[in-house]
Amino acid sequence: MKRNLNNLGFTLIELMVVIVILGILAGLIVPRIMSRPEEARQTKAMIQIESMETALKLYRLDCGNYPSTEQGLQALVEAPAVGTLPGSWREGGYLEKGKVPKDPWNNEYLYLCPGTHDEYDLFSYGADGEAGGEGKNKDITSWD
Length: 144
Description:
Blueprint: H1 12-34, H2 36-63, E1 110-112, E2 121-124, E3 140-141
Antiparallel strand pairs: 1-2, 2-3
């Protein structure tokens, strides 16, 4: 059996067509993928806020009220030593891992009690660390 040696590889035109198709696909897909990390950070912040809200509700059930602004979220991991002291604080605290998490941008969550929007306000200022903003700088809040 004889092989035709002229037909063993790809032609330059075939390679160019494949490269153009890959370029078009990359141009359509990459912009969508690039925004995903920021969406993931915002989703993580929302989930952490919801988790801390659950812990705050448990704290209130045990202690009769939410921690004050002065006591802060730290009251969820160690018994408060200032303000109104809780009578029946749960041994081991109310948050897993025994610490208050930082937001996905490595900033502290902000907590106010009494809050201006609800009984308490729990929020993160987002990527820019400043109040307000849109897109990746959007504030993540417990009242929205």
